[in-house]
UniProtKB/TrEMBL annotation:
Domain HIT: 11-120
Protein name: HIT domain-containing protein
InterPro entries: Histidine_triad_HIT (IPR001310), HIT-like (IPR011146), HIT-like_sf (IPR036265)
One of the Pfam families matching this protein, by short name: DcpS_C
Residue numbers covered by motif Histidine triad motif: 104-108
Amino acid sequence: MAGASAPTPCVFCEIARNSTSTPLLHFDDKVVAFQDIRPSAFRHYLVIPVDHIPTVKDLQRREEDYSLVSHMLNVGQTLLRQDAPQSSQYRFGFHQPPLNSVDHLHLHCLVLPFIPRQRD
Ligand SMILES: [Zn+2]
Ligand SMILES: [Zn+2]
């Protein structure tokens, strides 16, 4: 077996450090929020922890992790309510492994209607 490989840069960690051109809709010492680059609904934001947590399976049953997740939900709800106050069709969800798109925990926050995917 080869030795330690170079760590793969994590795009969400870079966004959380605000070292990309992605505009942050919200940031604090625990989480940041930004628009999904491929929105699948009328509004589609992602809320991620600043710390690199790969998946929901890496969360632990402890106060700190419960409060992180509830904070992520609060931030997502606040953003959607600000941006689409007339809508009540909000959806929130985490990926369940192995269906991760990016291996950095992120909460999808959507306002319906969904945008149909273009196929080519
Ligand atoms: Zn990361
Ligand atoms: Zn995702």
